[in-house]
Write a structure and sequence with these properties.
The chain is mainly alpha-helical and 846 residues long. Among the domains are: 168 residues, no CATH class; 218 residues, no CATH class; 148 residues, Methane Monooxygenase Hydroxylase, Chain G, domain 1 (Up-down Bundle). It contains 30 helices and two strands. The protein has a two-stranded parallel sheet with strand order 1-2. It holds the Pfam family COG4_C.
Length: 846
């Protein structure tokens, strides 16, 4: 411990003792009462004084000792510091001398490096001049020996030298010889010009002779003599000549052969793609990747020209313009007839068919829809070939530009500004394609209407519930299968084109077609025709066809085997398995009924009506599979692969989903309308009839039950029996969604009827319990496991629940349930209704 810290510690101790003694003296003074005590206190003070003096002397002596020790220590440290300072000054002198030496060394090194650099430059210059002189000698000898390749390589080596070497004064004096007196720069320029003419002539000769090895060898020579552009131009012309020649060969093929133009266009694009892939290796090695862009531009112009010729020939040979103009004219005339006569009476249809035949004759006999379909398929394949080529060209273009990690691919200028692409748009090829697609879709659909077949549902008109194996075991019209195949076929045609405009407009067109042609002109018309034959007295039963004069059954009861095979084959193509009771009982029915309707005819009309309802409810499922499942879910890369540019794929994906949603929305309105008619005009009276005895215990609406009739549930069992008789066949026939919609309307009717009866009852305690049992059985029968429908009965069940509470559960003053009881239940009836419901009970105590 240092002297300062020691002194501080001793001072603190002394001050602490002084404070204690003063405190002690103060206490003694307060207690003084006699002279002896004063004398004693004086003695104590004197003794303490002496002790303090001794302690102080000792403290001073120790402090002086410590101070002297500290002084000696400082003297020693000062001596050490003086020695250190002496050494430090010696070191500074040495360092100063070293800096002078280092500066001198650095200056020497810089001088040496500068001299070394000058020597190297001089050496390189002399060496380059030597290379120049040697190569000039080699070139001179090679040209005399007509070894043009060696001359070109030597020129390339000279061109690789720094430019200032060839034109330097030293080279002008050293390089020329008596045999070669010209200056180097003049010689090189003259030789390059001579070799350019030689190589150009050799290239053209090799191209004419189709000597590919010689052609490739000469092509590699042009960059060596500085003629990159000339070499690429000659090569581009050669390649374009190949493309033109191959295109001419293609066009000599039999034009009437199916799909020949699509094959021709595909072959043309294959040639161009092969050229870009194979020759790019030579060009990249000898010229550089960036020169491939120049070649691709030249090649694309020739490909544009030849593809345009193929497209024009296709248009003329297949009479596309004439056919589309005729179709447009036919549609316009047809629309005028429709506006004049309304919904296409027979006279309008006959006249339309006559016009169609006349149009076909003018167009060279192309009347069969299969012929137009062939043209459309070939057209689609041509557009698909262009789309694939555009994607390939774009990818390679950006590869040669060394552009990577593109967030989205955009068509490069040769594709975006392509004459072929412009021709497709400006010359109405897109519009013609859309007209053909729409025409084939509508005409094929009308043909399918004439071949419509409806299955027999007799096997489903039974009182035992039928378990359907899958959704396609329900009976539907064959039109649904035909329509599904038609939409799927045309979706494939338009999607495969890879043309955003065509596919987008087709989605718009399919929505209009679906709404106008299918839902309104067909489904709604058929349903309305059948509705005129349906009434409340009609009962769903098996259809027994009338026997003809010879005792045979009418055509409506024909063998189901033909229809079954027809539907199974179509749906297997579509990707579905059509099986089940309905599929096994398919029958060739005629859907057009006679004007005079017999009882059996009315039954058949009801059968057909239910089949059409099923068809309506199956439509959204088919549409979901076609648009969402197959396009977006099962093939998530389908749109991106066919529409790779920009955000086209994402935009079209949203439009596909919107189209599917629109079809579902359009169908939903007709679904609800058809079910509502079925309920109101066929089933409503029957439901009210079988409800006539429910919740009625006597003629005066007194629901008073005793021990003798408490277990008598005959009225409910009678209802259950009648319910199963009427409703189980509907449940067997209708799809789950259709039957649920129908059941929802029936439940609303039942609830309305039963609520009126409950409010009119007078109930005792046993009657309330019996009422609850009967209502539970009724709900279980009607709703089965459908809890959403059971929720609709909540008000009725709560009204009956009120009747089952004891009198002690109610508040005497308000008449409502006590709060601690009512809070445990989620009520749908109001407190006023609870009070009113309690008043129905006649045996309450208060």
């Amino acid at each position: 411990m240092s002297s300062n810290s020691s002194s501080s510690w001793d001072t603190d101790v002394l001050e602490g003792q002084l404070f204690k003694k003063l405190t002690k003296y103060s206490l003694y003074l307060q207690k003084l009462s006699t002279a002896s005590q004063v004398k004693k206190l004086s003695q104590i003070i004197e003794r303490d004084h002496e002790e303090q003096l001794r302690s102080l002397d000792q403290f001073i002596q120790e402090s002086q000792t410590k101070h002297n020790r500290a002084v000696r220590s400082l003297e020693l440290q000062r001596t050490d510091l003086t020695t250190t300072l002496s050494k430090y000054h010696t070191s500074l002198t040495a360092i100063s001398n070293s800096n002078v030496t280092a500066t001198a060394i650095h200056d020497d090194i810089v001088t040496v490096e500068r001299e070394d650099l000058l020597i190297k430059k001089t050496f390189q210059f002399v060496q380059s001049v030597s290379i120049l002189k040697n190569n000039i000698s080699v070139i001179h000898s090679a040209l005399e020996a007509r070894d043009h390749q060696l001359a070109a390589k030597s020129i390339h080596e000279i061109r690789s030298l720094p430019k200032e070497i060839v034109g330097s004064e030293f080279a002008k004096k050293v390089v020329p010889t008596s045999d070669i007196p010209e200056e180097p720069a003049v010689l090189i320029e003259k030789w390059c010009s001579d070799l350019t003419d030689i190589f150009k002539a050799d290239f053209l000769e090799a191209a004419k002779a189709q000597d590919i090895p010689q052609l490739t060898l000469i092509f590699k020579m042009f960059p060596l003599i500085g003629q990159n552009s000339l070499g690429l131009d000659l090569y581009s012309k050669y390649v374009c000549g190949i493309i033109a020649e191959e295109s001419r060969k293609i066009m000599t093929m039999e034009a009437k052969k199916r799909g020949v133009f699509a094959q021709a266009l595909l072959h043309l694009f294959k040639i161009v793609s092969t050229i870009i892939n194979d020759h790019s290796k030579v060009i990249s090695a000898c010229y550089g990747d960036n020169f491939m862009i120049h070649v691709m531009e030249k090649v694309q112009k020739e490909a544009d020209l030849q593809a345009g010729l193929i497209l024009d020939t296709f248009n003329e040979t297949r009479k596309v313009d004439r056919i589309t103009r005729a179709i447009s004219s036919l549609n316009l005339s047809h629309q005028e007839f429709v506006n004049e006569y309304g919904l296409e009476p027979d006279t309008v249809r006959a006249r339309t068919h006559k016009m169609n035949d006349q149009v076909s004759e003018r167009d060279g006999g192309l009347s069969d829809i299969s012929d137009i379909t062939d043209v459309l398929s070939e057209f689609s394949q041509m557009l698909q070939n262009w789309s694939m080529y555009s994607r390939f060209f774009s990818v390679r273009w950006y590869e040669f530009l060394n552009v990577t990690n593109l967030e989205m691919v955009t068509p490069p200028p040769p594709i975006a500004d392509s004459q072929y692409f412009s021709k497709l748009q400006k010359d109405a090829f897109y519009a013609n394609f859309e007209i053909l697609v729409t025409h084939c879709l509508e005409k094929s659909f009308k043909q399918s209407l004439s071949l419509e077949e409806l299955p027999s549902i007799n096997d489903l008109v039974i009182f035992k519930r039928v378990e359907h194996t899958d959704i396609f075991s329900y009976p539907v019209s064959s039109i649904l299968d035909d329509l599904s195949l038609l939409i799927r076929k045309n979706l494939i045609l338009t999607l495969n084109t890879g043309q955003t405009q065509i596919f987008s407009r087709f989605l718009d067109q399919i929505a209009k077609f679906y709404q106008n042609e299918y839902l309104v002109r067909y489904m709604q018309t058929e349903l309305k025709n059948l509705q005129s034959r349906l009434n409340s007295s009609l009962v769903l039963k098996k259809y027994v066809p009338k026997a003809g004069p010879d005792g045979s059954l009418s055509s409506r009861a024909a063998s189901p085997s033909a229809m079954e095979t027809y539907a199974t084959n179509k749906l297997s193509q579509f990707g579905f398995n059509f099986r089940g009771a309905a599929a096994n009982a398919l029958t060739n029915f005629q859907s057009n009924l006679q004007a005079v309707v017999s009882d059996e005819d009315a039954v058949l009309s009801l059968h057909h009506y239910l089949i059409y309802v099923n068809t309506l409810y199956m439509n959204p499922k088919i549409a979901h599979r076609l648009f969402i499942t197959e396009i977006l879910e099962e093939n998530p890369r389908l749109l991106h692969d066919n529409f790779p540019f920009g955000t086209d794929a994402d935009i079209l994906a949203k439009k596909v989903a919107s189209c599917e949603a629109l079809l579902a929305k359009q169908t939903n309105k007709l679904q609800k309308w058809s079910i509502k008619f079925l309920f109101e005009n066929v089933l409503a009276n029957k439901i009210r009839t079988i409800l006539s005895n429910i919740l009625i215990n006597s003629n005066d609406n007194h629901y008073i039950s005793g021990a003798d009739d408490y277990d008598d549930l005959s009225t409910v069992h009678e209802f259950i029996s009648k319910w199963n008789t009427h409703m189980v066949p509907y449940e067997n026939i209708l799809t789950k969604d259709a039957f649920l919609e129908l059941l929802s309307l029936i439940v609303n009717c039942i609830i309305e009827k039963l609520e009126q009866r409950i409010w009119a009852l007078q109930v005792n305690e046993l009657g309330a319990t019996k009422l609850d049992r009967e209502l539970s059985l009724l709900i279980a029968t009607v709703c089965q496991q459908n809890y959403a429908l059971r929720e609709k009965f909540a008000k009725l069940t709560q009204l009956v629940l009120i009747l089952g509470f004891d009198d002690d559960d109610f508040d005497v003053d308000g008449g409502d349930l006590k709060e601690e009881i009512s809070n445990d239940i989620n009520w749908v009836i109001s407190p006023q209704e609870r009070v009113k419901a309690r008043s129905l009970k006649i045996d309450r105590r208060h």
